[in-house]
Every structure is written in C-alpha cells, then in structure tokens.
Amino acid sequence: MYQKEEIRELLDKKSISYEWMDHEAAFTIDDMVRMGLDQNLEVAKNLFLRDAKGKNHYLIVVRADKRVDLKKFAEAVGLPKLSFASEERLQKYLGLKKGAVTPFGVLNDAEKQVQIYFDRDFIGMHRIGVHPNDNTASVFLSVNALIDIIVQNGHELNVVEIPV
C-alpha cells in the first residue's frame, strides 16, 4: 500500500525531481489556495466518481480553477451517468481517505479497476501539484513524470478536454 512516505521513496528511487511541502491538512482546493499552494494553476483537483450501477470507477484529474459539470463530462467521453463515489469506495479502490484524493492513489489499485481521465490543460505545463496519498503534504513534479508513473503502474490514462 502506497502511503505518504512510500510515494517519496518511489520518487527518489526513480530519480524524479520534485518539490515536497508538508502542511496542515488540506481537504479542499480552497484550503490549498488559503495556504498559498496553488501557484500558477498547477494544483490538481481530483474527483473520484462511479457510474450509476457502482460497477465502474473513475478518477478525474482537472486543473483546480475548473468546475466540472459531471453530466457534460460523461456525455463528452461516452460514459454513463456519474456521481461521486463514497468514502468506503475511495478506501477500497484507491486506499485513500476523503480529502486526500490524488492520482498517486492509483498505485494502490492493484486490479486496475479505476479509469483515469486527465485534463488536457495540464499537458505542456511545467509541473503539477498533487497530494502524496495524504492531505498533509503536497508534491509538485513534472506532468510527464506523473503520467509516466501512472502508465508504468499499468493504468491507462485518458487525456481529454474537460468540459466545464
């Protein structure tokens, strides 16, 4: 199970350059902004969703300044009606607690059950800020490095235009 320190160890092992910031628990993007952590629109907002039947689960990684219309998003990418998954599902599939949703959570998805949709707006940006599976820290690393970690873990990553 990848937790905060295992994420740091993984980044070091892969010789990935990153900036690590320990901070008070940040449960929302507003918390991140209040602490001055969302500079240059680099912080990702992460939504953990499920379909109406609860059989499929999705992680949406979007720039923090966007408000995602779930209906428009589902229609745009050809998914059924979506809703937020419960904290129990978040723990089961990503090993995370509410307020700590992050792309690094897919490292805990051994059965590759969570589909990932990544905001095209991050492509070409220098770096992205996400929690390291714990909301008491943030790690800023290159967008390409994060994508590589996800893909090397065996997850398919869908880069899409996120309708707002």
Outline of this structure?
The protein has 164 residues and is an alpha/beta fold. The chain has 5 helices and 8 strands; from the N terminus they run αβαββαβαβββαβ.
Topology of helices and strands:
Blueprint: H1 4-13, E1 18-22, H2 29-34, E2 44-51, E3 57-63, H3 70-77, E4 82-84, H4 87-94, E5 114-119, E6 127-130, E7 137-142, H5 143-152, E8 157-160
Strand/helix succession: HEHEEHEHEEEHE
Q: Characterize the biggest β-sheet.
A: 5 strands, mixed
Average pLDDT confidence is 94
CATH class equals Alpha Beta
Residue share in helices?
Answer: 25-40%
Our estimate of the beta-strand percent is: 25-35%
CATH overall fold name = YbaK protein
Which secondary-structure class do the elements indicate? alpha/beta
Strand order of the largest sheet: 4-2-3-5-8
Distance between the termini: 34 Å
- The shape is globular
The total of beta strands comes to 8
The value of Rg in angstroms is 15 Å
CATH superfamily: YbaK/aminoacyl-tRNA synthetase-associated domain
Query: What are the low-pLDDT stretches, counting only 5+ consecutive residues below 50?
Result: none
List the domain count as a whole number. 1
Number of helices: 5
Please tell me the CATH architecture by its name: Alpha-Beta Complex
